[in-house]
Amino acid sequence: MQLHGKHVTVFGLNRSGIAAAKLLYSQGAVVTVTDTRAREALSAEIAALTAPPEPSKSQTANGRLSNTCNPYQTYFGGHPLECITDAALIVVSPGVPLDIPILCDARLRNLPILAELEVAASVCPATIVAITGTKGKSTTTLLTAAILKAGGRFRNVCVAGNIGVPLAAEVQNLTSRDIVVVEASSFQLESTVTFHPKVSVVLNLSRDHLDRHGTMSAYRAAKQKISENQTSEDWIILNDSEASVKDFAASTSAKAIYFTDKGVPENPTFLGTFRAGSELFVQQHGIREKICNIADIPLPGAHNVQNVLAAIAVGRIFGVTGAEIREALQCFDRSHPALSHAFEMVRTLKGVRFINDSKATNVAAVKAALESLADTQVLLIMGGYDKGNDYTPLREIVQTRVKGAVMLGEYTQQIEKTLANTTKIMKAKTMTEAVQMAHKHAVPGDVVLLSPANASFDMYSDYKARGTDFKEAVDAL
């Protein structure tokens, strides 16, 4: 991608937008940044964007910063038409919807609209492994990186993308002797054109983010972009247990490898990883090799078996041995911020366990959490900003495992309607009230589980703030 001298407008002054603007500027582009928030609300972001050099304090009447000390043209408080007048290219942060009026106008002008991930990958010298799915992306990204580090085949193993550090913030530190494991969301993938990872991983696919994508087919199309530019020299790793994911192999030229936690594959030509009883195996050319035991998996929850199997498959592509993989799992560092609020044990009080799964922002994640609590009765706290969810897949497991569900948040009517007659439904106005209500109905051996199935934006800034509120309410009991 030729960027030198090109006028580029970056939409959204969040981490991805800041990283993209800085990368573009370093490549010689003339960069404009625009955000709907007022300048007063963006002091930290502006400082990160313009240091060095320090931003000028002077502003013009239309909200543009003076360029005497600032290398960027900057618009705040909205997206005026002027912000794209001179643009030859537009780069969007993941949180910016693609159907806002200014971007519709940009399409009429035939301006390319690309994701930060696309721009960063186009100048990335390192090998790229990209991981997507409705749930489990962060965990699998970190597991994969740990396994690749244990293998010692690369100078540096980097983690980037939706996990917290934009790829654009890392690429200038990478070389051709490095590898970067990228967590890729549908928001990041939908505006890619030439994105081409050496290995792509699709963990699962279920209804999510329909408030953004509109339809399940559009959501799937965004996910499929992870592999559409791969060739026969590349690999795609797919969940053999999900037909909707397994079908991705038909839309790419990449060599397909599979993983499954449903037992020994019946197909003798199966290529990939699988669980048999309490052991995990790799199968290649009809030969099976035991990698580790379930006891070696460093994270709680049955759903993490699939994440480990996918990560093992990536490791084997790059020649990591079974012994190295086993050591990586046993020494896995669970302290990464991305693993907080994901099926996180908070406390046991008088025989009742409290689990913070605030990161479970879709139905599939809640179902996985409940499946991991076999032979246990659950008090489930749910609710939040509905992204177009269908809660029907929860009816059966709620009926058998949930003794009470506490509804929290503005948008719980659909959950209540769908789960009617499956369990006792209660309603709370605050997290403290929800936790106290669940605790009141719990007996020793039960679990109080925060697993909302929804985003947090009705009450909180993000899922982390929601999870922190839950933990504080639990600690106060």
Features:
UDP-N-acetylmuramoyl-L-alanine:D-glutamate ligase; 9-stranded mixed sheet; 6-stranded mixed sheet; alpha/beta; Rossmann fold; 477 residues; globular
Going by helix content, strand content and strand pairing, the class is alpha/beta
Instruction: Give the CATH H-level superfamily of the largest domain.
Output: Mur-like, catalytic domain
- β-strand percent reads 15-25%
Distance between the termini: 56 Å
Quote the average pLDDT: 92
Q: How many structural units, i.e. domains?
A: 3
- DSSP E strands, number: 20
Helical amount among residues, as a percent range?
25-40%
Mass-distribution shape = globular
Q: How would a textbook summarize the main sheet?
A: 9 strands, mixed
Question: Which spans of ≥5 residues are poorly predicted at pLDDT below 50?
Answer: 53-68
Q: Strand arrangement, largest sheet?
A: 7-8-6-9-10-11-12-13-14
Descriptive notes:
- It contains 17 helices and 20 strands.
- The protein has 3 domains: 7-111, NAD(P)-binding Rossmann-like Domain (Rossmann fold); 118-330, 3-Layer(aba) Sandwich (UDP-N-acetylmuramoyl-L-alanine:D-glutamate ligase); 340-475, Alpha-Beta Complex (Protein-Tyrosine Phosphatase, Chain A), CATH 3.90.190.20.
- The chain has a 9-stranded mixed sheet. Strands 15-16-20-17-18-19 form a 6-stranded mixed sheet. The protein has a 5-stranded parallel sheet with strand order 3-2-1-4-5.
- α15 links the parallel β18 and β19 (424-428).
- By secondary structure, the protein is α/β, with parallel strands linked by helices.
